[in-house]
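Mods, move this if it's the wrong board.
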Amino acid sequence: MIVCCSEISDPNWRWIANHFSEEHARFEFYDCSPRNWVERQFKFLNLARLRGSFEATRNAKRKKAAILVSHGPTVAAWCGIFARLICLRSKMIAHSFNFVDLPASLKTLIFSIGFTRIDRFVVFSRIEIDLYARRFHIPKSRFSFVHWGIRRPTTGTVTFRPPNPYVSAIGGNARDYGTLLEAARRLPDIPFVLVVRPSSLDGQIIPANVTAHVNLPLETTMSVLSESRFMVLPLNSSVVPCGHVTIVAAMHLGKTMIVTASAGVEDYVKDGENALTVPVASVADLVQAISRLWYDDPLCRSLEERGLLFATTDCTEANIAQHFQQEMALLGSDRRQ
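Not the wrong board. C-alpha cells:
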C-alpha cells in the first residue's frame, strides 16, 4: 500500500494512481483541508495540516504501508516529525518538494527534524537540489529531479468578453507584476488580461489596456491562457524556483511565452528555442520582447510548436508515474505490501 498525504481537498484527486493497477500498487489518500469549525476558524494555526499529516502517518503505520508520500514541503516536515514520534517503519518520499520562500531560522530547525526521517525528496528543478541540501543539511544523494508533469489542462467557460487578441499573465508565486504593468503602459495598443491573487497588484496602478481578474476558477484561468496570443511570466528573481506549473500548462495548451530568465526555470525554458527570456525587472527588455512576439507570427508559431513538443515529451503525468516507479525501486519497497 502507498499512503498519500496532501493539502488538495478535491475528493476526486488521485495523483498518478490511475497509472498503476491495483495489483501493482494500491493508493490511499489523506488531505489536510479544514473539516470542522475549529480548523476553519483558526487557519493561522494550521490545525488541519497537523491533523491530516498525523492521520496519514498513523494509518500508514496501522496498515503497514510500504511508502508514505507527502506532497509539499510543510506536509513532508510534519509527516516526518509524526513518523519519528510513532516509530513509523514505512519508507517516506517527499514529493513536489518546493518552497516559494525558504522558511525563517526557527521553522528551518523544526522542519529539518522532520526532513531527517524522509528517505527521498523529489524536486521539479535541478537548482533546488543544491538549495535545499544546503539549507536543511540533507545529502544530495537523497534528492531526485523530474520535470513537472500534467495532462493537457482542461479549459472552462469564460463569462466575460476579453479583447481579441491579447497577452495573458497568470499566477501568483514569486511574480513581478509591477514590471509587467509598466511594460504594458508603454505598449498602449496591446491588450493584456491578467489572472492574479488579491495581493498581486497591491499598490499598482493598472493601465487602461490591462484587464485584471482575481481568483478565477482554474478552468477559467486556463481558458484565459489558451485564448491569448501568448503569455508573459514575470518573476521577481533570477534564481527563484517558481513558475513550473504555469510554464508547463502554457506549453501543453500550445502557447509560447516570455519568461524572466531564472535558474529556477532553466530546466524548462530555452531562450529562442521554446520561449523568449528577459532579465529580471527589466522593463525595456520586456517591452522589446512583447513587441517582437506580437508582430512576428512565424516566430510565435515556431516557439509554440517547440514548447508543445517539449511538454508532450518531458512534462507528462505518465513521466511522473514512471519516475515514481523508479523511486520505489530505489527504495527497494514491496509495492504489493
